[in-house]
Amino acid sequence: MARRNPMRDEIAIVGVGSTDFSRDAGGISAAKLGAQACIAAIQDAGIDKSEIDGVVGALEPGAPRANQMSSILGLNDITHHSSPMPVAVSALVDAMTAIFSGQCDTVLVYYAFTRAPWNSRSAAQDPFRSYLGGMMSGGLKAPPMPESIDPSAAYTAWAQRYIHEYDVPRETFGRVAMNMRANAARNPKAAMKTPLTMEAYLEARMIRDPLCMLDMDIPVDGADAFILTTTEKAKKLTPNPVVVHTATAGMVGRNDEDQLPSLERHGQHVVVEALKERSDVWIDDVDVFFPYDGFSIITLGWIENMGFAKRGQAGRWMLDHWDEDLGCVMIDGRVPMNPHGGSLSEGASRGTGHLREAVMQLRGDAGERQVHDAKTALIGCGGFFFNSQGAILKRL
Amino acid sequence: MSESVSDAELVERFPWVQITHDSKFHFRGWLDKQLLINRCADCGNWHHPPKPVCPVCWSENLVPTEVDGTGTIHLAMALHQGAPAPGVDYAKGPHPVVAVDLDGADGVRFSSTVIGLPPEEVVIGLPVELDWVERYGHPFPVFRKREA
Ligand SMILES: [Zn+2]
Description:
The structure holds two protein chains of two kinds. By secondary structure, chain A is of the alpha+beta class. Chain A has a domain at 11-117 and 220-227: Peroxisomal Thiolase, Chain A, domain 1 (3-Layer(aba) Sandwich). Helices cover 34% and strands 18% of the residues of chain A. Chain A is built from 14 helices and 14 strands. In chain A, strands 3-2-4-7-1-8-14-13-9 form a nine-stranded mixed sheet, sandwiched between helices. Chain A has a three-stranded antiparallel sheet with strand order 10-11-12. In chain A, α7 crosses α11 and α7 (171-184) packs across α12. Chain B is mainly beta. Chain B has two helices and nine strands, in the order ααβββββββββ. Chain B has helices at 7-13, 24-31; strands at residues 36-40, 46-47, 62-66, 71-79, 95-102, 109-112, 114-115, 127-135, 138-145. The N and C termini of chain B lie far apart (33 Å). At the A-B interface, α6 and β5 of A face β4, β5 and β6 of B. β5 (206-209) of chain A pairs antiparallel with β4 (71-79) of chain B. The structure holds zinc ion (ZN). Zinc ion is lined by residues 40, 42-43, 45, 54, 56-57, 59 of chain B.
């Protein structure tokens, strides 16, 4: 593992832009949502579009690739472009590396997500989305068998393993969902704002036992975009830019979903080891915490693997740090967990929502969700298999 | 029997999965109701799903080796909805899916369903054994509870 971090605090996020997240944005394409977010981010940064010489885009079905977005926005000449996976931190790292190595100076990073026919009933009725069905099946003549353990099913299987090993009740997972929903109520962009009680969680429709529909992120139409440049240039735009202190991906060699050796060492552990190795700060220094929540079990993993709680104790820990008035976790009465509502309630962004909220918090622009004088944000993005990522952002 | 099945016919008979030159032996094995798992002839390690080289020693000398299919449930869930498949009716009750630690193939799991047992009895730690059902007209490996 690389212990060097020559990029530490050298790359800044100087612009953010996003659409609202909606369970049905109506007759708007993913390309248009992406373009709206990109334009908002460029305007937010206060730069001219001609200054952008790098584009890092989405690899999501239905979303425009980097070359298409360059054309849509009529950008100037580009010297670095890519459409990497996984989103969101690895896309950030790609942009950072390109800037730091001199491939380009100012990068537009964006991600547009669109409900697909297989995860949304209303999307299935949209003729303009029907082509996505063919992309999902990969040209096969029949759908995969129910027993095919794809990444999303695998989280449920490992959630049952977590219950088995640590003897925890379903309320542990429900607590994660309640935290996100209470926070989403304070986020105008969020898709799901209606309050959630534990009773409602326990009665929610089971999808893959032990996980119910409220353990799984909400498919939405939406987009996020970011502008990155050197910290040196950022200081000319704003006196206290938000910088990336460290960022990393993490994966173990044997990462097949059903072959993962155990819950005790997977991608999240690699991320945590790398972040600690390449950072001056750790969990006691954090003002706002972003554990990814594409599935509730992933959040429990981040809480424990980051070191906030002991193994199997994330549920107990959430109760110990629960703010009854706000209806959510406030670590030591001070640090919220996904104050924007996360993927479970703001909407399924694969973590770009977490990244955007981190920047907003560090700029002091988070409105009624604002953490007082937030200077450091910790992000655990992705899950256990191929897409674990992490980042620490700071305000200079 | 399966030796006479051409590559084209093999692909035809398994419309729901992408078969490759690395996994064609294993799906041919299904046609003979044999569960084959890759074992490295050089270092003896097992791996699954089928890979082009041994992940331990990089040998290409891999032998699809029949296992008897007994093992213990390591992961379990019950699908209340999911992909359609012949013989799977979610309206009649949740469909169990398990990953089984296979006896004799150290460190390897095989994922499938469990038949002949109510979903609530399909639990982690349960000893199981291999059985076969029909799906799309080809044999499909499943598990059932192994009696002591
Ligand atoms: Zn070997």
